[in-house]
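User: structure tokens for this one?
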Amino acid sequence: MGVAVLSEPGEGYTTPELDAKWETASAIMGKVGMERFNKYGGLCDETIPEGPYHYLGILGVLPKCQGQGVGRQLLERVLEEANNHPESLGVCLNTETDKNLPFYRKSGFEVFRDIPVDTIHTWGMVWEKDSNTTSLR
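Assistant:
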């Protein structure tokens, strides 16, 4: 129905499996594609606040399950995880879809920084655990 991929503070934003596929992806994208990707990645890094935050790398719900509260339930679990972590300041994320902004804002996230990257726009958002609740209902 849906998936959330959450990195703990200090864990990084990737997995060994993704790192292993990097060489193949680089060959497919070519030099120009890789330059654009690296530019995008560097600018995304600037939209993430400093400090020990959980990073929500993916929050996705199958189209046929959207609008049924699945995303809200997943996000509630993510916020609960961060809230229970003694070192975490909260959760941060990037979204390139402006229609996601109201969903995250309703859940207590605020835009930390937004940056245009060529034809893409990315919003870095943050949820501070001390100023919000994990209940989204």
